[in-house]
């Protein structure tokens, strides 16, 4: 495993564009810290500071930061599809196979890289969340601080699943730009199917089925936290309640998609004439 990971990291670090994108991917989550320090002057009457509103209290901080950090995943997605595009354009894929690397090891090297960078990103956002929470939160009990840290696991699985999908599209079309375009096409297809199901079935059944779709299932791992924040400010508003938790069955759905994408990537490479 470490041999394959080291091989892939060497390729990425020798590419200037990849180094820049990886750097940006790891730096952007730190903008959550800036979010916590934002102040708004309300018509000159008073200053509103987000950090003082209680939205960075434990345990909601885990939900808030992982949701915002997951929006930056597209930068490393470019790295993932570029890993495949560069292999074909630079002929390094064929050379690696000639040098003794099996097709299975080739795909595993990509997957190990995805897991490695997803883990690093998760650790970074975990440390950032903990630091912001300890500074702003009015709750200091250990049981409350570490409650809902399952959002970190959901964040990690979400990254691995999304990047595995990018890997599959990269293998399918061999070009970075086309692979990213396929993500947009898949997004549109999912919503078209959802619309057709709403027309034929009812909204509840259509939504339940939609939650099994690749992109939607990844999104559902960490639902938007804004409604939850509103619930905390207006507890008497029952119409604001919704299920915002990070559930194990949702993680399992994404893990199944991840396994399928890696398997399909391997099958494509195995059958393809290089």
UniProtKB/TrEMBL annotation:
Coiled coil feature spans: none
Signal found in the keyword field: no
Keywords: Membrane, Transmembrane, Transmembrane helix
A Pfam family hit: ABC2_membrane_2
One GO cellular component term: plasma membrane
Source organism superkingdom: Bacteria
GO molecular-function term, one example from the UniProt record: ABC-type transporter activity
Bilayer-spanning residue ranges: 20-40, 60-84, 111-136, 151-170, 177-197, 251-269
Record-given protein name: ABC transporter permease
Originating organism: Algibacter mikhailovii
């Amino acid at each position: 495993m470490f041999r394959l990971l080291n091989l892939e990291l060497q390729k990425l670090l020798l590419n200037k564009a990849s180094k820049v994108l990886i750097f940006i991917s790891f730096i952007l989550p730190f903008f959550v810290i800036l979010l916590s320090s934002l102040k708004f002057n309300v018509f000159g009457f008073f200053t509103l500071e987000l950090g003082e509103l209680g939205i960075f209290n434990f345990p909601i901080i885990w939900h808030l930061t992982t949701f915002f950090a997951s929006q930056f995943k597209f930068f490393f997605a470019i790295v993932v599809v570029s890993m495949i595009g560069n292999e074909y354009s630079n002929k390094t894929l064929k050379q690696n196979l000639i040098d003794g690397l099996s097709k299975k090891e080739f795909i595993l090297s990509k997957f190990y890289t995805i897991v490695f960078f997803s883990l690093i990103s998760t650790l970074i956002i975990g440390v950032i969340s903990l630091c912001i929470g300890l500074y702003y939160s009015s709750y200091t009990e250990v049981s409350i601080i570490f409650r809902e840290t399952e959002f970190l696991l959901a964040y990690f699985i979400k990254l691995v699943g999304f990047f595995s999908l990018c890997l599959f599209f990269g293998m399918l079309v061999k070009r970075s730009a086309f692979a990213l375009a396929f993500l947009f096409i898949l997004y549109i297809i999912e919503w078209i199917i959802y619309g057709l199901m709403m027309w034929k079935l009812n909204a509840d059944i259509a939504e339940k089925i939609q939650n099994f779709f690749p992109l939607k299932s990844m999104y559902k791992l960490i639902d938007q936290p804004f409604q939850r924040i509103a619930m905390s400010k207006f507890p008497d508003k029952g119409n604001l309640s919704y299920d915002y938790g990070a559930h194990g069955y949702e993680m399992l759905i994404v893990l199944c998609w991840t396994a399928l994408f890696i398997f399909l990537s391997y099958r494509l490479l195995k059958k393809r004439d290089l």
